[in-house]
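Listing S7. Sequence submitted for prediction.
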Amino acid sequence: MTDSRPIGRYRWTICALLFFATTINYIDRQVTGILAPTLQAEFGWSETQYADITSYWTMAYALGFLFVGRFIDRVGVRIGFAVAVIVWSIAAAAHGAVYSVFGFALARFVLGLGESGNFPAAIKATAEWFPKHERAFSTGIFNAGSNVGAIITAIIVPWITITWGWREAFVVTGLFGFVWLIFWWPMYRHPAEHPRLSAEELHYIRDGQEAESTTLPRVGWRTLLTRRQTWTFIVGKFLTDGVWWFYLFWLPKFLDARYGIKLGKLALPIIVIYLVADVGSVGGGWMSGALIKRGWNVGKARKATMLAAALLIVPTAAAPLADSLWVAVAIVSVAAAAHQWWSANLFTLTSDMFPKHALGSVVGLGGFAGAAGGVLFQRLTGRILESTGSNYLPVFLICGSAYVVALLIIHLLSPKMEQVQLDAA
């Protein structure tokens, strides 16, 4: 089915809401990374201490994923997403009131709990609002908000910090989520209940989705963990999420340590990296959808797209060896774009293989695994840097190889990407 007849476009309004939520989510989590050298000087943190503090956010993110997916499956996307945004926005602003390392770690922990709701809610909303052949593209669009959030943070946080102070930077960015809620609450409903959705567009959405009963029971973790398809997503997240968070939390420190880039000059390299990453997010989602429209089966299209991303990331290992700042920025830019390319398709695998009533739980399990891998990678990064005198080469070697290893395991677990039947479970 094509999108040529006058069916309406309200589903793309929903995609825009998801995009802005993801943008704000990444602004709030990225502030600490941008301010890392400033905060490290303020609190006197060592590399290991900084790694441990950032890992508190990731621990909470992991714990939140265990429960938030099931919470969203139970209460629905509209309420679940709103609750998550309220929690993380309060926690983000609360960083500005912190006067101790413990207080900062606590604020990071609560922030992680709230932010864990973004992707389970967004993926579930995408499955409700888009036919299967549009899901990777729509996921790529809202996932691009992560890069836009990083860009906005790199622009406004140094300016706010230099003008007023780092505390004010946390307070101002923490208010953005409440602005988003003003639009979300009146504009989002399930498609079948939405007064602004045309009958033609509702039919188009449903016609491109799998048939599914609305009375199916909840699916337990035990049932999901017996399916190889669940482990496909878990492994992909566990091995690669930590790499992305390394970019978010450690890249400003790497540019400072390797090239002497301070807060006032950080914006341009960060903007370049995440602008290129945006191209990867949207392009990667578009590519697999284009292959499907050309007749490729869904599994083959997703894997081919993910393989291209994994190979583009391999040269990341050479970033610390670059003599020029802009060579290093170019290498990391391609890697960031390829990660988003990868991520858009990895998320879409869940809606390819699982029915909608289980999506929140599956994404939650994968998110927990990704966050757990992130905790390990952050703590490992801190200890590697402290023991080697801030030599980033071993860390970037891990970043460059993680995706190829992950895709190999994904293929072994789900060679044909079969759909999971849970009705009789």
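Caption to Listing S7: primary sequence and predicted structure tokens for the chain studied. The chain has one domain: 10-210+221-413. The radius of gyration is 21 Å.
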